[in-house]
């Protein structure tokens, strides 16, 4: 009996010492799918949230008319909490941020700086650090949330899916952004969203859409510039996201173009620091397949393949050098993390240059070497449509 | 039922008078006849046949119960030889007639009235002879039994299709067919003061743990009860737990299961008038082992065993997990799944926990209704249950479709457990855990799990910890828990495991 008492006491304690009671039915929460933050006219922050409307499926209601899948509410405020409270006043259900997968930042706000608003996305445990952060180029972020994406239930789902498509752009989650921002010798980047249009079959006019393009470069939480698509592709080498990306090269002697898909890639950065000079060696290694060869070359011949390989490597070096030039000279932002590499290789030197790393980085010498391996040339040597005598053996 | 069981014999029938019951037969046939008359007062099926001397004086009296006796046997084997040939006239007259020349075996000669009455009630015919103070009882009983059929509670695809029946003698025969060794012991007991039910303890000498046999024996001999109708009555009396959720004895209708258990060193308890045989000790894991496991290839058997393990968890925790996650931890659900659950729940007026409880209770009701009803009406129940309560409730927006999926999955999961007494325990545990999950979320679920774990590690079946061989741990015996390793009945492989663990725990002072 005494033992029973003891056991039930333990259970009683377990039952009563449970902290907060937070039962919330699914029907009592408003699922926030995405947040867009913009600069309001008076310099405050304008936040727009996209709330999903769980509509009963047509089977249960018998209704076939298209119901709203989401709605937007906006508020202006000085900081996150203030906006949050104002937004909640408009909602009959508790705002639930755990499922927010996308955070859009308007370009204007990004240029002004994110320092005033970022904390609210991370301090609350109900937030997802896995949410993607994107900068909206040339438009208010809130406007893009309004876009009805044809596929997904809510457009933020579409955004999430688009972000996850590897090799098509840079991906940055809140966590990536925070980590890059907090670490020395590295500048954070995010993906970029641009308005686009599409047409509906049988309907006149264009409807709005969005597309993912390029990369936004931040320095001390301020947007400093964008990389275009081509440069972003080079950036992917360093993001370890180069798989399924392409290199298109022109063959020498006007023999046409060739395209190469990378299946696995590796980047090695080596720093070479002398007393007054700073040099980085970048070695790119890639394996992949030839996916297109618009030339009369018979690529089943190993000599010809060598020509192709050399052309591809030349192209890769050229692309990489352009990319490096842009981030060094134009933006002076070390988004790759050369500084981190230097810190590892030569901590003493790093301490000397740390204070003015952006300047040192801009002046550092870069050398690029590339080694591509063509594993597979496809089903044929030369293109099938070519006559025998047109083929360059 | 309870009153009948608890109450000792209150009104003392005449036969319980010790003076009478220990009485001996008299040499006077008339006096004996009067005694029989009195003992079987108002028993309309009592038959008395008088065999007279040619001069009309009473010579012999045959007494039997016509409902238990085979009339043909009586007339062929008793009346005819006695009347026609009178082969033992001399013996009859000299007062030493014991029916030696009768064409019947197994006769019993007794002078005790108690014995005579007992035998008559077991289908014997008692023959009283003038001038003798003993009765000769001849077995003339007709065996009322159904044919041996496939056990309906434990069907197999591969394996014996024989099942036990209600007659113990047949059951013992079935068992002996499996184990042809004199080491198979059958200790007989009579339990129940009015039912005089025959109970047998079956074990293989040398394999069975002697202490378990002793425990069973002493528990059975110490039972005082008016009647035992089914092994369940006995189970309650020999298991010490006042609140048994999981069964401490395994019951089975299959002779091969009993034979296999005896080979493992376990003890079988056979009760007359029921096809269900009890096996002790049993463990948690035995609840998840089907007899077919040992007849199928071991990779297949291991796979099916794992399916059972998975669905054991589903059967206990699925609805509570759903309740906990949807009412406390929405962030755990993938976004698109959450959206579909939210859409389904939009018209539903109840909280998830209430919804889950309603559907679980509804399911249990349907199940219960299905068991009791004749097969023809049983179909109606499933249609009403499936269509009306399932689909219509969802369409009407009273119940959401996800909870219906969860509840029916849970229902199916419970049917995967091979031992239905074990499944009943699992079914019972579901409800408190739904309540816990509904009030405390996953924390409550974890609490419930902890509670179950504590309970299961705590209980014992005849001295053997319920989680043997996982706790206490025995690597060798694990061969038959999470996997079904080949070579189950190799000499010395599996059998002594129980014994060893029992002894080990005893040494540690566990008992």
UniProtKB/TrEMBL annotation, chain A:
It is a lipid-anchor. It is found in: Membrane. Signal peptide: none annotated. Keywords: Germination, Lipoprotein, Membrane, Palmitate, Signal. Gene3D superfamilies: Nutrient germinant receptor protein C, domain 3 (3.30.300.210). PROSITE patterns: PROKAR_LIPOPROTEIN. Residues 22-194 form the Spore germination protein N-terminal domain. Belongs to the GerABKC lipoprotein family. This is Spore germination protein KC. It comes from Paenibacillus forsythiae. The lineage of its organism: Bacteria, Bacillati, Bacillota, Bacilli, Bacillales.
UniProtKB/TrEMBL annotation, chain B:
Pfam families: GerA. Keywords: Membrane, Transmembrane, Transmembrane helix. It comes from the Bacteria. The chain crosses the membrane at residues 306-328, 387-417, 429-456. The keyword Transmembrane helix applies. InterPro entries: Spore_Ger (IPR004995), UPF0353/GerABKA_families (IPR050768). Coiled coil: none annotated. Belongs to the GerABKA family. This is Spore germination protein KA.
């Amino acid at each position: 009996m005494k033992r029973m008492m003891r056991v039930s006491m333990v259970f009683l304690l377990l039952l009563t010492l449970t902290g907060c009671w937070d039962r919330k039915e699914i029907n009592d929460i408003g699922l926030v799918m995405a947040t867009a933050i913009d600069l309001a006219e008076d310099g405050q922050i304008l936040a727009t949230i996209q709330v999903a409307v769980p509509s009963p499926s047509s089977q249960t209601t018998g209704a076939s008319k298209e119901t709203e899948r989401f709605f937007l509410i906006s508020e202006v405020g000085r900081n996150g909490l203030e906006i949050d409270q104002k937004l909640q006043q408009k909602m009959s259900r508790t705002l639930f941020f755990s499922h927010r997968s996308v955070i859009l930042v308007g370009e204007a706000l990004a240029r002004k700086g994110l320092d005033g608003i970022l904390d609210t996305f991370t301090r609350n445990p109900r937030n997802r650090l896995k949410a993607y952060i994107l900068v909206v180029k040339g438009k208010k972020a809130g406007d893009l949330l309004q876009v009805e994406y044809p596929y997904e239930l809510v457009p933020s789902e579409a955004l999430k899916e688009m972000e996850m498509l590897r090799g098509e752009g840079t991906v940055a989650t809140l966590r990536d952004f925070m980590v890059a921002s907090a670490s020395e010798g590295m500048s954070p980047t995010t993906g970029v969203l641009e308005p686009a249009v599409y047409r509906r079959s049988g309907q006149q006019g264009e409807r709005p859409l969005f597309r993912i393009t390029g990369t936004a470069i931040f320095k001390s939480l301020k947007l400093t510039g964008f990389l275009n698509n081509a440069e972003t592709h080079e950036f992917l080498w360093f993001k370890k996201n180069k798989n399924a990306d392409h290199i298109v090269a022109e063959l020498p002697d006007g023999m046409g173009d060739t395209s190469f898909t990378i299946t696995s890639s590796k980047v090695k950065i080596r720093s070479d620091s002398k007393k007054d000079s700073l040099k980085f060696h970048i070695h790119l290694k890639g394996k992949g397949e030839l996916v297109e060869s618009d030339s009369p070359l018979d690529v089943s011949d190993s000599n010809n393949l060598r020509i192709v390989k050399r052309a591809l490597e030349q192209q890769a070096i050229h692309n990489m050098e352009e990319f490096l030039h842009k981030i060094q000279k134009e933006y002076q932002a070390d988004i790759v993390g050369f500084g981190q590499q230097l810190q590892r290789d030569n901590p003493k030197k790093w301490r000397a240059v740390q204070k003015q790393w952006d300047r040192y980085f801009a002046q550092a010498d870069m050398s690029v070497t590339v080694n591509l391996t063509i594993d597979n040339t496809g089903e044929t040597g030369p293109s099938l449509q070519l006559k025998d005598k047109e083929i360059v053996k | 039922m309870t009153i009948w069981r608890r109450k000792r014999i209150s009104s003392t029938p005449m036969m319980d008078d010790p003076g009478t019951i220990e009485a001996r037969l008299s040499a006077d046939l008339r006096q004996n006849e009067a005694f029989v008359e009195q003992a079987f007062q108002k028993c309309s099926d009592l038959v008395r046949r008088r065999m007279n001397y040619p001069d009309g004086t009473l010579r012999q009296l045959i007494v039997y119960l016509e409902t238990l006796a085979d009339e043909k046997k009586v007339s062929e084997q008793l009346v005819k030889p006695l009347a026609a040939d009178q082969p033992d006239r001399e013996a009859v007259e000299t007062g030493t007639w014991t029916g030696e020349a009768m064409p019947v075996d197994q006769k019993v000669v007794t002078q005790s009235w108690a014995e005579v009455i007992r035998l008559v009630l077991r289908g014997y015919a008692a023959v009283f002879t003038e001038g003798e103070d003993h009765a000769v009882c001849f077995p003339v009983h007709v065996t009322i039994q159904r044919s041996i059929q496939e056990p309906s509670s434990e069907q197999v695809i591969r394996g014996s299709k024989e099942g036990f029946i209600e007659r113990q003698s047949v059951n013992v025969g079935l068992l002996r067919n499996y184990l042809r060794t004199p080491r198979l012991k059958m200790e007989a007991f009579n339990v129940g003061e009015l039912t005089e039910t025959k109970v047998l303890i079956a074990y293989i000498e040398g394999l069975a743990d002697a202490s378990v046999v002793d425990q069973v024996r002493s528990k059975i001999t110490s039972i005082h009860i008016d009647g035992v109708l089914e092994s369940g009555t006995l189970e309650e009396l020999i298991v010490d737990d006042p609140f048994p959720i999981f069964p401490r004895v395994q019951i089975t209708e299959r002779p091969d299961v009993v034979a296999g258990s005896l080979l493992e060193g376990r003890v079988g308890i056979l009760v007359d008038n029921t096809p269900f045989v009890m096996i002790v000790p049993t463990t948690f894991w035995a609840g998840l082992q089907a007899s077919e496991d040992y007849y199928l290839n071991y990779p297949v058997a291991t796979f099916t065993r794992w399916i059972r393990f998975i669905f054991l968890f589903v059967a206990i925790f699925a609805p509570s997990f759903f309740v906990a996650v949807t009412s406390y931890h929405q962030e755990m659900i993938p976004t698109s799944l959450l959206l579909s659950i939210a859409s389904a729940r939009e018209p539903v007026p109840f909280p998830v926990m209430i919804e889950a409880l309603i559907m679980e209770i509804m399911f249990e009701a349907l199940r219960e209704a299905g068991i009791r009803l004749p097969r023809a009406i049983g179909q109606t129940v499933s249609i009403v249950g499936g269509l009306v309560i399932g689909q219509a409730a969802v369409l009407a927006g009273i119940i959401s479709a996800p909870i219906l999926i969860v509840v029916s999955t849970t229902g199916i999961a419970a049917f995967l457990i091979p031992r239905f007494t074990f499944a009943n325990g699992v079914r019972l545990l579901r409800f408190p855990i739904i309540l816990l999950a509904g009030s405390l979320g996953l924390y409550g679920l974890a609490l419930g799990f902890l509670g179950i774990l504590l309970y299961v590690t705590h209980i014992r079946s005849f001295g053997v910890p319920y989680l043997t061989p996982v706790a206490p741990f025995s690597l060798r015996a694990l061969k038959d828990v999470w996997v079904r390793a080949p070579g189950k009945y190799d000499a010395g492989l599996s059998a002594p495991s129980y014994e060893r663990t029992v002894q080990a725990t005893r040494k540690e002072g566990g008992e």
